[in-house]
Design brief:
The complex is a heterodimer of chains A (about 250) and B (about 350). Chain A has helices at about 15-25, 30-35, 65-75, 85-90, 100-110, 125-130, 145-155, 165-175, 200, 220-225, 230-240; strands at about 5-10, 35-40, 50-60, 75-85, 135. Chain A is an alpha/beta fold and about 250 residues long. In chain A, strands 2-1-3-4-5 form a 5-stranded parallel β-sheet, sandwiched between helices. The longest helix of chain A has 12 residues, at about 65-75. Chain B has about 350 residues and is an alpha+beta fold. Chain B folds into 2 domains: about 1-65 and about 85-200, no CATH class; about 210-250 and about 270-340, no CATH class. In chain B, the strands form 2 sheets. In chain B, strands 3-2-6-7-8-9-1-10 form an 8-stranded mixed β-sheet, with helices on both faces. Chain B has a 4-stranded antiparallel β-sheet with strand order 5-4-12-11, with no helix packed on it. In chain B, a hairpin with a 4-residue loop joins strand 8 and strand 9 (about 165-170). Chain B is globular. The N and C termini of chain B lie far apart (about 45 Å). Classes of the chains: A alpha/beta (about 250), B alpha+beta (about 350). The interface of A and B includes residues 34, 172, 182, 190 and 221 of A.
Chain lengths: ~250, ~350
C-alpha cells in the first residue's frame, strides 16, 4: 500500500465506550497508527479532514440534525463502518422506541428540563437505517481484538467476517460451566458470538449485546426459558435490552 | 497382559515424581467448579480420578482448538513454511470411552495423506486410561463400545480396587517402561475381581437397538419425523459437537499481524451443527435446515463412521446430552423416539 488509509472516528447517541476501547488499545495503538492515518477522532485528537477512506461511526441516530450530519460524513467517506451495538442496531437506545410516546419518555427521563432544545429526540435508528453502512462491528462495547482484525483485513482488501454462531460455541471452547446448569438463564444460545463469551466466563449471563445470530431459534429459547419458570414478560425484558426482537414467528 | 498393583497414595507420589522430572507435561482431570476438566498438573494433589465426565474430551491436546499450520508473508506466494509444534505429554485418567474416541480420531487423521500435526502430538503422548468410578446419568458407553477398542490406544489402564489400590494393566512396552520405579507389585487379584472393578459403574442408559444394526436402521429412517421434531428445538449452537470426543471438523483462518508483514494460517474447531458450516462458494448452504443438520450429526455417528471404521462413531460419553440446553442432543433419546414412533 503506497499511502496509509485516512481514517476517522465519529460518535452519535452513545456512551463513547467504543471509542474508549480504541483509545485503550495500549501497545497496539502504535501498530494501528503505523497502519492507518487517523485524521479525525474527537476524543483523542484535534483536527479535521475533508474526506476519509474509512469512517467509523459509533452511536445510534436519534435526532433529525444527526441524520444530516451522518449523511454528510457518508458523502465524504469511501467506506463507512458502523461500530458498536448502538450504531449497528440502535443498541440500548432502542429501548426508547418501545414506549411510543417520545414526549412522555423525555419527561420521564429529564423532568422539568425536558423541553430544553439540546434534549430534542426522535425515534432511535441504527446507522444503517439512515445511510449505507458497508460493514457493521457489533458489541457493547466493541471487542478490541475484533476491531484490530477488521482494520487489518480492510487494509489488505479482504472482506471481514463477523462470527455468525451463538455465544455457546465460545463458552464450550473455554470449558465454562453452562449457566443453565447453575440455574441461571442466559441468552447465549441465540446471541451472536465474537466476544469470547466474556460475560458467562465471569459468571454473568449473556445479554446478547452483539445482537442475535442471523437466524435465532427464538421458539426454542421461549420453550427453554419457560422450562426454567420464566414468565413471558421476563423473557421479553431480557431480549429487549439489546433490541433482540423477542417475537416468535411461524 | 501383565497386571500389577500399587497403593493409591504411592500412585499419587509417583505422579508428583513425574511432574518434578519435567520430561513431559503431566495432564489429568481436575475440578472446575461443580464439573471437571483435563488440565496440566503442577501437583498430584489437584488430580481428581473419581470424576464423572469432563466438560471437553482430551482431544483438545491432539487437535487443539486453534493450531498454527503455516507461517507466511502476506501476498508472497512462496513465503510459507509449515509449522508443527508438539511436545511430550502424559494423560492420566482418561476414561475408557475417551480412549475409544481417540482411536477413532487416530483413524480419521491417518487416512489418506497423514495429518502430521495431529499424529506428531499423538505419538508423543502416553495414555493412562481409567475405568470410571462415578456414575454419569447420560453415559451409555457399555452399549456402543467394543471391549478391545480402548486397548488400541492405551499404554496403561488404571482400575480402582476396593482395598485402596489401583490395579494397573500394562498394555504397551512404553507403558511398562513408564511405571518402572513406581513401586508396583504383582497383582494378586482374581480375574473376577478385576472384571467386577472395571464394571462397577453400570450405565443407566442403553442404545435401544443393537449397535451393529444402526446403519441400516438409520437409512430406513432417513425421512422419519424425528429429524424435524428434534431439529425444531435445535439452536444450532454447536454445543453437542464441540464437546464430542469423536468430532474433528475444523475451519482454516489466515491471521495477519499488525505490521501486515507476517501471517499465520490456523485451523480452528468448527462444527456441522452451526448454521453456516456448509455454506460454500456462491453462498449456497447445502445443509441449511436445522433438521438436516440434526440428521447429519446422528448419521455421522451411526452410519458413515461405522461403515468406514467398523466401530460406532459415538462412544456414548453423554457429553452432548448434558451440554444441550434444549435436551435433544443425546443419541439414546433420538433412537428411543424413533422406536416409540414407528
Amino acid at each position: 500500500m503506497s499511502e496509509k488509509p485516512k481514517v476517522a472516528f465519529f460518535d452519535f447517541a452513545c456512551c463513547e465506550g467504543c471509542q474508549l476501547q480504541i483509545a485503550n488499545l495500549e501497545e497496539d495503538i502504535i501498530g494501528l497508527l503505523n497502519l492507518v492515518n487517523v485524521v479525525e477522532f474527537r476524543e483523542v485528537a484535534t483536527g479535521k479532514a475533508p474526506e476519509y477512506d474509512i469512517a467509523f461511526i459509533e452511536g445510534s441516530i436519534t435526532r433529525k440534525s444527526d441524520e444530516e450530519r451522518l449523511k454528510d460524513i457518508r458523502n465524504r467517506s469511501k467506506l463507512l463502518v458502523a461500530y458498536g451495538q448502538c450504531a449497528v442496531t440502535g443498541g440500548i437506545n432502542l429501548l426508547k422506541n418501545n414506549f411510543g410516546d417520545l414526549d412522555m419518555v423525555k419527561r420521564k427521563v429529564y423532568g422539568d428540563d425536558s423541553s430544553m432544545p439540546h434534549l430534542d429526540t426522535a425515534v432511535t435508528k441504527s446507522v444503517g437505517e439512515v445511510v449505507k453502512a458497508d460493514l457493521a462491528i457489533p458489541g457493547c462495547p466493541v471487542n478490541r481484538e475484533e476491531f484490530l482484525r477488521i482494520v487489518k483485513e480492510l487494509c489488505l482488501g479482504k472482506i471481514p467476517r463477523i462470527p455468525d454462531y451463538p455465544v455457546c460455541v465460545e463458552c464450550k471452547l473455554k470449558e465454562n460451566i453452562c449457566l443453565f446448569d447453575e440455574g441461571t438463564i442466559c441468552l447465549g444460545p441465540i446471541a451472536r458470538a465474537g466476544c469470547g463469551a466474556i460475560c458467562p466466563s465471569n459468571g454473568v449471563p449473556c445479554d446478547a449485546c452483539r445482537g442475535a445470530v442471523p437466524n435465532p431459534n427464538k421458539k426454542a429459547m421461549h420453550e427453554v426459558l419457560k422450562k426454567y419458570n420464566y414468565t413471558v414478560e421476563r423473557i421479553i425484558r431480557e431480549m429487549n435490552l439489546f433490541g433482540v426482537n423477542p417475537e416468535v414467528s411461524e | 497382559m501383565d497386571i500389577v498393583k500399587i497403593p493409591e497414595n504411592d500412585f499419587y507420589k509417583f505422579v508428583d515424581k513425574k511432574i518434578a522430572e519435567k520430561s513431559s507435561r503431566i495432564i489429568s482431570v481436575v475440578r472446575k467448579g461443580t464439573k471437571f476438566v483435563f488440565d496440566e498438573l503442577d501437583s498430584a494433589s489437584r488430580m481428581c480420578l473419581d470424576y464423572d465426565v469432563t466438560i471437553l474430551p482430551p482431544k483438545k491436546y491432539f487437535q487443539p482448538q486453534k493450531e498454527t499450520l503455516l507461517r507466511f508473508v502476506p501476498k508472497q506466494a512462496d513465503s510459507y513454511e509449515a509449522v508443527n509444534e508438539f511436545e511430550p505429554i502424559t494423560l492420566i485418567g482418561v476414561h475408557y470411552y475417551d480412549l475409544a474416541a481417540i482411536y477413532l480420531m487416530d483413524r480419521a487423521f491417518s487416512e489418506g495423506k497423514k495429518d502430521e500435526n495431529y499424529l506428531k502430538k499423538r505419538n508423543n503422548a502416553l495414555l493412562i486410561g481409567l475405568y470410571p468410578t462415578h456414575f454419569f446419568k447420560y453415559r451409555f458407553s457399555s452399549s456402543v463400545i467394543k471391549g478391545e477398542q480402548p486397548y488400541k490406544v492405551a499404554d496403561l489402564m488404571l482400575i480402582h480396587m476396593d482395598d485402596g489400590h489401583f490395579a494397573l494393566e500394562i498394555v504397551t512396552e512404553k507403558g511398562r517402561a513408564y511405571i518402572e520405579g513406581a513401586g508396583c507389585k504383582k497383582s494378586d487379584y482374581t480375574l473376577k475381581e478385576i472384571e467386577d472393578a472395571k464394571n462397577r459403574i453400570k450405565d443407566d442408559q442403553r442404545l435401544p437397538i443393537p449397535v451393529e444394526l444402526t446403519p441400516d436402521y438409520l437409512m430406513k429412517n432417513h425421512d422419519h419425523p424425528v429429524w424435524e421434531v428434534f431439529g425444531e428445538k435445535c439452536y444450532s449452537c454447536g454445543s453437542c459437537v464441540f464437546v464430542c470426543p469423536t468430532c474433528y471438523c475444523f475451519d482454516m483462518k489466515d491471521e495477519i499481524d499488525l505490521t501486515l508483514k507476517s501471517g499465520e494460517r490456523t485451523r480452528n474447531w468448527d462444527g456441522c451443527m452451526l448454521e453456516n458450516f456448509a455454506v460454500c462458494a456462491g453462498g449456497h448452504n447445502f445443509r441449511g435446515k436445522r433438521a438436516a443438520r440434526f440428521r447429519h450429526r446422528i448419521f455421522r455417528k451411526g452410519v458413515n463412521l461405522p461403515l468406514k471404521y467398523h466401530y460406532w462413531g459415538c462412544v456414548g460419553c453423554g457429553r452432548c446430552a448434558d451440554a444441550c440446553t434444549s435436551s435433544i442432543a443425546g443419541p439414546v433419546k433420538v433412537f428411543k423416539y424413533i422406536e416409540e414412533n414407528k
